[in-house]
Amino acid sequence: MNYRLFGRTGVYISPLVLGCMMFGQKTDQNDTCEIIDRAIDHGINFLDTADVYGKGASEEFVGEALKRNASREKIFLATKVNGRMSEHPNHIGNSRLHIIEGCENSLRRLKTEYIDLYQLHRPDSHIAIDESLRAMDDLVSAGKIRYAGTSNFGSWQVVESLWASEKHSTVRFVSDQSPFNLTDRRAEREHIPMCQTYGMAFIPWSPLAGGGLTGKYKRTKNQRTGTRFGDETDPGKLKRFSSEVMDITDALQPIAEAHTATVAQIALAWVMDQPGVTAPIIGPRTIEQLEDNLGAINLKLSNEELNLIDELAQPGTNVTDYYEASFKPNEHRF
After folding, report:
1. pLDDT digits over 97-108, tens only?
2. 12 is annotated as an active-site residue
3. What domains can you pick out in the chain, each with its CATH number?
4. Model pTM greater than 0.90?
């Protein structure tokens, strides 16, 4: 496996990140352990979760899996803070109070003494960024986290944080994760070039457009039960599936057949191959989905195929809404 530099940290990570959002929600503990063990066996060394996934359940399942396989020291372990964890008025956001308490709770659930990458899950318009940075700085000094990163920040918000880090001599964010896939390429306009300019790792989430680019969906409103777009009742997520998404997946089918691959593997290989992308985050619910995702690692698309894909989904454009929607500020708390 060809490992990739994580921004300018000097840390090498696998070309795919194992996202753990399904664990503790749709994936039980035994299946979680099997998926994590199989991923590690294939060379994956980066796991990404968040405190809000299952209100702590994902972190608990990941922590238990790493305890059982005794592989914590092999893993670059990432989690996030920001989302509402209870009805308590201060159990949300990027305040110093919530970041410090959130880190202690995540360490306990993950059964670890340190977190490799601690990320702000969303920007918070209620809190000055230097307040959040000082909390991160103290956590690094205490040895509780190794690096700090952002998730779903706008480009200007990331640059503001870098300015604040220099001005106040605090820890610097080393990475950002935001959506990027063939149905929404708007990150190419500004966000990816920003990460390249400032030496930040870019780890895109939803590289398969929430499953829309797997090829398993049909041109109908009634999708197979047990799938995201078959069961999902969230209008914000349902609008991410459309006939335009199907146009892309249909056109990817001949490319997949030429490689004896799946449509999902082609879509994932495309993301991994894009300039400025460090490693996309996959989110398998089952061992079969993981195996399919892993099959994309050694796929190499030709220049002709890449040009064809650019005709299907023009650079910087979108047919579904991932990028802008993710940058909405936190809701007012009360």
Report:
1. 999 999 999 999
2. no
3. 11-327 (3.20.20.100)
4. yes
